[in-house]
């Protein structure tokens, strides 16, 4: 491909594809330069460095993930919304392993502050959990429970970590059912009057 058609968006899109094909850790400036048939230096007018590229990839993938989740949960509440959220999350993680890995990196908080994807993620996730009657600090605790459960399950599944003969989908469905029960019976943090 000719250098003339390079844009930041095309570079990040190619990085996303490379992450899914070769793994997030294999996304490098040199690998992308080879993909485009240019020298590494040609990409630096579109990205600052490897960290900038990976951050842009993380933000792009996070936006794709929340778009998928938003479409799945639209018009649903309670257990239906939780299951739709969980299934969309898992499907994205399994279909786009490199992009999903990018969503797990730590990104500078100053870059996230105005991120539309982050704002939308919080809006959708907290909205779903408010249907369970949760307020802070329980909302934050519930978000952490869901994220760690979903991520742990997806990471184990992708790595072939489930060797028992039980169908992985059935176990996933039971895990989502258990999360629903936990959210319905959330142990409220006692608030003490001063």
Entry summary:
By secondary structure, the chain is an all-alpha fold.
Order of helices and strands: HHHHHHHHHH
* Straight-line distance between termini: 67 Å
Which bin fits the share of residues in helices? 55-70%
The main β sheet shows up as: none
**Uncertain regions: pLDDT < 50 for 5+ in a row?**
none
- Give a count of the beta strands, DSSP E runs of length 2 or more: 0
β-strand amount: under 5%
What is the gyration radius calculated from CA atoms?
19 Å
Assembly state here? single chain
Mean pLDDT across the residues is 91
The helix tally amounts to: 10
- Sum up the overall morphology in one term: globular
Please identify the structural class as seen in this structure: mainly alpha
């Amino acid at each position: 491909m000719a250098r003339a058609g390079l844009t930041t968006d095309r570079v990040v899109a190619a990085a996303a594809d490379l992450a899914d094909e070769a793994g997030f850790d294999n996304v490098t400036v040199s690998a992308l330069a080879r993909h485009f048939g240019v020298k590494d230096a040609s990409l630096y007018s579109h990205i600052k460095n490897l960290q900038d590229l990976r951050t842009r990839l993380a933000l792009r993938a996070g936006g794709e993930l929340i778009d998928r989740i938003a479409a799945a949960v639209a018009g649903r509440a309670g257990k239906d919304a939780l299951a739709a959220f969980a299934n969309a999350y898992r499907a994205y993680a399994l279909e786009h392993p490199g992009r999903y890995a990018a969503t797990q990196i730590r990104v500078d908080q100053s870059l996230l502050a105005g991120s539309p994807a982050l704002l939308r993620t919080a809006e959708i996730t907290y909205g779903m959990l408010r249907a369970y009657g949760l307020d802070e600090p329980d909302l934050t605790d519930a978000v952490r429970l869901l994220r760690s459960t979903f991520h742990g399950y997806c990471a184990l599944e992708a790595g072939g970590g489930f060797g028992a003969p039980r169908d992985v989908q059935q176990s996933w469905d039971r895990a989502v059912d258990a999360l629903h029960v936990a959210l319905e019976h959330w142990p409220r943090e006692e608030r003490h009057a001063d």
